[in-house]
Amino acid sequence: MPEASSTEHVAIYAGSFDPITLGHLDVLRRARRMFDRIILAIGHNPEKPALFTYDERLDLARHLVDELLAEEPAGAPVSVEHYSGLTVDFARQAGASVIVRGIRNITDFAAETQLAITNRQVADIETAFIVTGESFAFTSSSLIKQVAALGGSLERLRTIVPAPVIEAMQRKKADPSNPLSRLARDQLVE
User: Fold this and answer.
1) Which end of the chain has the least Cβ crowding within 10 Å, N or C?
2) Which of the residues are catalytic?
3) What is the phi/psi pair of residue 41, to 5°?
4) Model confidence pLDDT, tens digit, residues 16-68
């Protein structure tokens, strides 16, 4: 990965993106007007069981980012990468000066502020908060997985989830060995 020049403002937009939502893309769209280059960085959150593999998340995110860039060519270029370990270590390696975080509500703000202060203290990297559009204020990947696993209509998620993600979730839901299908069965046991 090439090092950023000292005058280039590179931002890391990090998350598990499992699945990537229209809210994530909304934050990315806004960030493209603020920075010179953005890396959408797909990480692993050990506290959350993954629905999509790294490769699946990379493919979905790259497809959606390509669509976004084609629809809106003005703004910062965006690359999609995955990483393991600490986000701040990846950010330093990429030459980023800031980590972008989407904020949906006051609960997000409280948790993200604590993380931002820690990142600044331990790694000298700043955090830029971008408030998501109001139509995505209650969108979360975890809730989307839960709705899908518990038999909710995937079609009704189209206002908050991109079509390629819904199609991928439909394939997962039809596969009995997939975590989405297993989650639905586990919920029925309780």
Assistant:
1) C
2) 24, 48, 104, 141
3) -105, 115
4) 999 999 999 999 999 999 999 999 999 987 777 788 889 999 999 999 999 99
Domain boundaries, given as residue ranges, for the chain: 10-137
**Two tokens, residue 40:** 């959408």
Catalogue the long-range contacts made by 46-55 (C-beta closer than 8 Å, 24 or more residues apart). 48/16, 48/18, 48/142, 49/179, 49/183, 50/16, 50/18, 50/179, 51/18, 51/19, 51/145, 51/169, 51/172, 51/178, 51/179, 51/180, 52/18, 52/19, 52/168, 52/172, 54/82
Burial class (CB in 10 A: 0-12, 13-18, 19+), 19: buried
Considering only the top CATH level, what class is 10-137? alpha beta
136-147 b/e (C-beta count within 10 Å ≥ 16 → b): beebebeebbeb
